Automatic annotation (TrEMBL):
The gene is ldhD. Residues 147-328 form the D-isomer specific 2-hydroxyacid dehydrogenase NAD-binding domain. The keyword Protease does not apply. It comes from Limosilactobacillus caviae. It holds the Pfam family 2-Hacid_dh_C. Keywords: NAD, Oxidoreductase. PROSITE patterns: D_2_HYDROXYACID_DH_1, D_2_HYDROXYACID_DH_2, D_2_HYDROXYACID_DH_3. Residues 38-359 form the D-isomer specific 2-hydroxyacid dehydrogenase catalytic domain. Belongs to the D-isomer specific 2-hydroxyacid dehydrogenase family. Coiled coil: none annotated. This is Lactate dehydrogenase.
């Protein structure tokens, strides 16, 4: 028998091509998903999903979804979206007029969708509630360590040619008691990272995780956490009850030289109260990835223009405050998951299947 060399890669390629061809020829070829506001950094992942689903026609635009641009989705069975701009009654109607009522968000938040109209038109909506807890936890941990080591002060000194050590002395993470408020997906990863640095970690959550409880992380109340923690990191949602949970009263209960970390939501923190704490020296440093007035300011280019928020500018200018414009989530890992999970969800919706993460309507 002749000895034939088989190239496994070539075989895989041919099999994939044949399968793709047969899928394209089959009756399920008429499904189409249209995606709006696709950024450059999302494009490779849209292409990745499309390549892995040759049976679906995928089209996209960088434009936001509006009553006018909705027409671009003509012929699609579902849409994939993500924008700060409201999904108004008119926008939803424009989609429904073309027979499109399956909409998959690439993000979590649904507060900019007209839910009454959604109900009226019978829309099915999905979101992506968990895309990479590590992205946010890692950012919070990096910034915590930077504040403790005063890296911003050092960077400024070095840039000005001042290479002296003192008085810019660091605090080691292992010497800190780190108090984590909210032990959900993100809080738990932050706890692991801080423990990796050697910190003592304590936590508070009204819904205690049984595993963490067994390991003895929980204190009984927020007041207990405030009294014991050198670093306090917030990982809770911005509910009505949590509005300004960090305020004058709670700051007064904290240890002197406390570090406060907010990579969660701006509304959790009374910014004026934190500024008072920074001015008095009670607060050693503040990490701020989210800001209560961030909408319309973050993710914009203010170079050469008048900066619109004096209070924020003052915080940005402080050496012991680390401001980032809500970028904790913004990693390749997270963005890929947001795109792929949204398309997976939409694919299930347009095939009449149960989506992985449907949004409860009404
Ligand atoms: N900066 C960013 O880029 C970014 C990205 C994603 C999410 N987030 C924020 O991170 C938050 C946490 O996300 P997650 O995925 O871990 O959510 P999650 O739902 O998994 O966990 C939230 C936890 O907070 C607890 N909680 C609620 N109110 C509390 C309170 N008053 N005190 C203590 N615990 C309380 C809940 O019981 C829950 O266990 C989100 O709500 C969001 O605001 C920020």
């Amino acid at each position: 028998m002749a000895n034939v060399d088989v190239n496994p890669e070539l075989v895989k390629k041919i099999v994939k091509q044949v399968l793709n061809q047969s899928m394209q020829n089959s009756s399920s070829t008429n499904k189409k998903i249209f995606a709006f506001s696709i950024r450059k950094d999302e494009e490779p992942y849209v292409k990745e999903w499309a390549e892995n689903h040759p049976e679906v026609e995928v089209e996209y635009t960088s434009e936001l979804l509006t009553p006018e641009t909705a027409k671009k989705a003509k012929g699609a069975d579902g849409v994939v979206v993500y924008q700060q701009l409201d999904y108004t009654a008119d926008t939803l109607q424009a989609l429904a007029d073309q027979g499109i009522t399956k909409m998959s968000l690439r993000n979590v938040g649904v507060d900019n969708i007209d839910m009454n109209k959604v109900k009226e038109l019978g829309f099915e909506i999905t979101n992506v509630p968990v895309y990479s807890p590590n992205a946010i936890a890692e950012h919070a941990a990096i910034q915590t360590a930077r504040v403790l080591r005063q890296t911003k002060v050092l960077d400024e000194k070095i840039a000005n040619g001042d290479l002296r050590w003192a008085p810019t002395i660091g605090r080691e993470v292992r010497d800190q008691t780190v108090g984590v408020i909210g032990t959900g997906h993100i809080g738990q990863v932050y706890m692991q990272i801080m423990e990796g640095f050697g910190a003592k970690v304590i936590a508070y959550d009204p819904f205690e995780n049984p595993e963490l409880k067994k390991q003895g992380y929980y204190v009984d109340s927020l007041d207990d956490l405030y009294a014991q923690a050198d670093v306090i990191s917030l990982h809770v949602p911005a509910t009505k009850e949590n509005f300004h949970m960090i305020n004058r009263e709670s700051i007064a209960k904290m240890k002197d030289n406390v570090v406060i970390v907010n990579c969660s939501r701006g509304a959790l923190v009374d910014t004026d109260a934190v500024i008072e704490g920074l001015d008095s020296g009670k607060i050693f440093g503040f990490v701020m990835d989210t800001y209560e007035d961030e909408v319309g300011i973050f993710n914009e280019d203010w170079r050469g223009k008048e900066f619109p928020d004096k209070r924020l500018k003052d915080l940005i200018d402080r050496s012991n405050v680390l401001v980032t414009p809500h970028t904790a989530f913004y990693t390749t890992h997270a963005v890929r998951n947001m795109v792929l999970k949204a398309f997976d969800n939409n694919f299930k919706l347009i095939n009449g299947e149960k989506a992985d993460t449907p949004v409860k309507v009404g």
